[in-house]
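Input for the complex:
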Amino acid sequence: MSDKLSPVPATTAERSQSGGLVLLCLASWVVPGAGHLWLGRRQKGLIFLVALPLMFAIGLALEGRLFPFQLADMLVCLEAFAELGIGAAYFAGSALGLGAGDVRAVTYEYGNAFLIVAGLLNLLVVIDAYDVAKGRK
Amino acid sequence: MKSHLLLMALFAFFVSLVFAVIAKDEPRDQARLGGMMFGGFMLAAAVLGWFMYPFPL
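Predicted:
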């Protein structure tokens, strides 16, 4: 007798649940905290909704740079990916012409640290929302 | 705002806040962990600052 289990096709409910998870993660990425608010974790959602965009805005105010996706320079590309983690705020900042970054400013590196870390923290928040939705937390 | 200490404290505050809220569910636990992390960030910065005092040699 074989120990291997035969693959079971996903049911409609499982497929719809996985579609919901993708939507949840997408919402959580676009608007920080939206995933937690969706799941009824109001306190956590509101804190993320205020803290992360505020951190990003402070980064812009400190003359930080919104890095472009330059494949020729891997470090710049990685920084751009990290900043993109904040979601809609990245595109809003770019569209408004913010984040030019003044390398001569005393606060330039601080601004970059705020922008990059805000994006990375939001990615952690997305993973946390996913775990909550899966019932792991 | 150009004070390095204030900017570092602000950065430590945000990072501690988000980590604590992710890691803990109860507000009391969140406050405790967040406070400890914030204190740890500030203490580490002060200690590293003193270690860097002789530089550049």
